[in-house]
Structure formats: structure tokens, C-alpha cells
Amino acid sequence: MKKIIFATGNEGKMREVRMIMQDLGVEILSLKEAGIDADVEENGTTFEENAVIKATEIMKMCGEIVLADDSGLEVDALNKEPGIYSARYMGHDTSYHIKNKSLIDRLEGKTGEERSARFVCAIAAAFPDGRVYTTRGTMEGQIGYEEKGENGFGYDPIFYLPEYACYSAELPLEEKNKLSHRGKALRLMKEKLKELQEV
User: Can you give the pTM of this predicted structure?
Assistant: First the structure.
């Protein structure tokens, strides 16, 4: 295991991935760095299915071990919306300020636990020999009443963490990596890959 391709073009995500995976001793490349230009249609019904579809398709293109993630926000009072449609919620080109305001407006009149929500991340690893592994991480919290913080993206500015009395976007990056859904799923995947290295 000398090289792993992480199926993203998102630089922020790659920083997070490299920070967590650095002690694996494996080169980790983004799609761009690996010279892969692919737009895989994620038409699964769960975060895991979408991650597996993306990892498997790209592994077939390059013949390397590929990791892919699918993540999103589940709001309990909204029947777990936007869920797997988090990135596409209200349309791909809609700004997150508009998406965030919509979610806050839809929870009007609800307080405390009635605003419970979680970030979910599933990561899939697809190997050239056909093996596929998945891990899942979650971060529990609530939908806040306004946008706060500069350190996050997407829905981070409205995601309130009661035990830390702050919003996800107010956390320093190191702290966020420890708590985040992606951080948890990545660490579980790192443990899995370490086990496989030892076999």
C-alpha cells in the first residue's frame, strides 16, 4: 500500500484527510493530483452506497486503492432532510447562506432538542482486487438560530454543539477534526487500513 487516491477536488477536505492520515506512511493524492477528471453520478439511497459507488468507479479508472466519502446533514424534525441530498438541497448553485436560512426558517417555533440534528459521513475504500470497506462517523448537535463562525463551510455556521456552547464553524480546525463526522469516519478507516497493512 504505497498510494491512495482520495476522490475529491476539495482542497479543504484534502487538508483534513492528510492531517488525519499522515501516520499511515502512504502517499495520498486528490483526483486532480492523480490526473483523474471524473464526474461520478452518486445515485445510491444511503451515504454508504454513494461513497461505494464513487470509490469503485474511480478505482476502475485508475487501478489504485481509492477512498471516497459522502456526507450530509440530517435534521430530525424535517424527516432527516436534507440527508444524502445535502449538497443538492435547493439546487447545486444555491448559496449556503440561502440553504442555511431555509433550514432555520423551517424550524421556526422549535427549541432545544426539537432542533436536534447530526452531520453524517460515510467513507468507502475500494481495492483493485474487488474488496470494499466502509466506515461511518457522526457529529450530534442542533440547528442554531443564526449563522456564526468563519472556520467552516456548508452547514457548519448553523450547526450548534450544546456541549461546547459554540457553532461548528467557530471551532479551530484541529478541534473540529477531532469532533467532526468526517474526522471520526477517517480515523476508523485509518485503523482498518493499518490492520490491512499488517496482514
Answer: 0.92
